[in-house]
Write a structure and sequence with these properties.
Elements lengths: L10 E6 L3 H14 L2 E7 L2 H11 L3 E5 L7 H11 L4 E6 L4 H9 L4 E4 L5 H11 L4 E2 L1 H11 L12 H11 L4 H8 L3 H15 L4 H11 L7
Parallel strand pairs: 1-2, 1-3, 3-4, 4-5, 5-6
Helix pairs in contact: 2-3, 4-9, 7-9, 7-10, 8-9
Length: 221
């Protein structure tokens, strides 16, 4: 069953997976679960890049382990040459490092092949809202790995990002953080988004857990 009302015009996308049967199944799911129109299919990364340049779709659903040019390299090239095309990555067993790299490079979403069909609809609605969709299974994978990280990981953050993360750990809202730091709400939202990209996390709860685990205190803010 579809999650919510259908959009008036189907979202045009290209689909890339090395297996023809997988592509056929994904095409049907995209049509009926997400009201999307698959305007092109590719079996390898180079074929996909050529197709994106020719068709200029709104989005691309890309297998991480594509032959010839892998999914991360495809993402990098699409973001460089066709930034208006949102890239959703799909993997059977993603590694946390791959997910974090994808988010840093601007992936619009990351799903596993074990995801529920309805997640495709959620992911594409996020694309239309210019938001990032992370499958719960992928988010949990990142949180599990983050439980093993060291305090030295905090060194990748700027001073302002550490301030924002500290206040998130204290349960402060975006508006409260903006008031405390004397910046706009939009600025805080930008810092929050960059924190999630830098740390490979998704959602406020994940940021709160990281702040508490690192022991960031009032001196940071």
């Amino acid at each position: 069953m579809n999650n919510g009302p259908l959009r008036a015009t189907p979202l045009k996308l290209v689909l890339a997976d090395s297996q023809a049967l997988v592509r056929a199944g994904m095409r049907l799911l995209l049509q009926y679960e997400a009201n999307a129109e698959v305007v092109g299919e590719a079996a390898d990364g180079q074929e996909l890049l050529t197709m994106v340049g020719r068709l200029r779709p709104r989005a691309a659903l890309v297998e991480l382990d594509l032959p010839v040019v892998n999914g991360l390299d495809v993402l990098s090239q699409i973001r460089r040459h066709y930034p208006e095309v949102a890239v959703l990555l799909l993997a059977s067993r993603p590694e946390p490092g791959q997910v974090r790299s994808a988010l840093r490079q601007g992936a619009a979403g990351f799903l596993t092949k074990q995801a529920e069909p309805q997640e495709l609809g959620l992911a594409l609605r996020s694309v239309e809202k210019h938001q990032t969709y992370i499958s719960p299974a992928v988010s949990n994978l990142l949180l599990d790995r983050r439980d093993q990280t060291r305090i030295e990981d905090a060194a990748v953050l700027t001073h302002r990002q550490r301030q924002v993360l500290t206040l998130i750990g204290k349960g402060k809202s975006t508006k409260e953080i903006a008031q405390l730091l004397g910046v706009s709400v939009k600025t805080v939202e930008t810092h929050r988004a960059r924190l999630m990209q830098s740390l490979g996390l998704y959602g406020t709860n994940a940021l709160m857990r990281t702040a508490l685990r690192w022991g960031l205190d009032t001196h940071e803010a």
